[in-house]
Write a structure and sequence with these properties.
Elements: H1 5-10, E1 18-21, E2 25-29, E3 37-43, H2 58-74, E4 81-84, E5 100-104
Bound molecules: adenosine monophosphate (AMP).
Length: 113
Amino acid sequence: MENCLFCKIVAGQIPSAKVYEDDQILAFRDIAPQAPTHILVIPKEHIGSVAEVTEENASLVAHIFTVIPRIARAEGLAGGYRVVSNCGPDAGQTVPHLHFHILGGKPLTTEMA
Ligand code: AMP
């Protein structure tokens, strides 16, 4: 999608520190990490947020969730990690392209809001 930051990363128009890529999804390091390990996993296809997940694109989301544990293992997150997806302005979503944050590498706070 035109003017979507993460679509530009998928297209290689904006550089990223890639940690995983296949034909459907891309994972790269967050530019402003909130934890020692902070990776974003995105579908290459533009989906705005969790609010736009449908029966038609749900297999893409399922694929992301099979890759997340592989990335976590490769990153050595043996102590655990958090997977977060902010959906919409009240949740603080700043990039309107579906993405899942993988956060880990230290004990995380239990605050949810
Ligand atoms: P959210 O606030 O949940 O929409 O998450 C968007 C995330 O994208 C934030 O954690 C940003 O730090 C991250 N981000 C923004 N621009 C880039 C970029 N060019 N490369 C990597 N991460 C980015």
